[in-house]
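Box 3.1 A note on notation
Throughout this textbook, protein chains are presented in two layers. The first layer is the amino acid sequence; the second is a token string describing backbone geometry. Keep the layers aligned when reading.
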Amino acid sequence: MDKIKAQAEDKMKKSLKAMQDDFNTLRTGRASPALFDKIRVDCYGQKTPLNQVATVSVPEARLVVIQPWDKSLLGEIEKAIQMSELSVNPNNDGKIIRINIPPLTEERRKELARMSRNMAEASRVAIRNIRRDANEELKKAHKNGDISEDMEKKIGEDIQKLTDRYIGEINKDLEAKEKEIMEV
């Protein structure tokens, strides 16, 4: 019956990872290649992730440089960035694209902090749902006679400890993200 606990932990890890990936796409005042992870470029008739058609680097704290492997894609990359939700202005010099990341306004910072709190809350709900599903499986196993009442209780406590640990991780990541967003 440790299988139920292992499955719950695996799902909790995936939920935490999904939230961390979402956090990476939130624009802070600092440049990061992860900001461009969700951008898809029209490459030879196919929507392709930007990092598969170009090198994305951060030479300075507020500058991102995108160097396409095929120079003919410069226009498509520039268009994809302009159409994204990042609100940045790419500068195309014919060889590479430079993007200056402007500092965030106070209002935008608060909005991003609120968005990160919503993402964290969605992850907490997902973790609690995983706990609920695991506990239901335990009850079913006990009802079917597969495990004893003591075993059900012990595994249930272990699942609760996992839940507490992952919710703590979410809270810690949220705190770090909010601090990063609110930096001037």
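The mean pLDDT is 88. Residues 5 and 159 are 6 Å apart (CA to CA).
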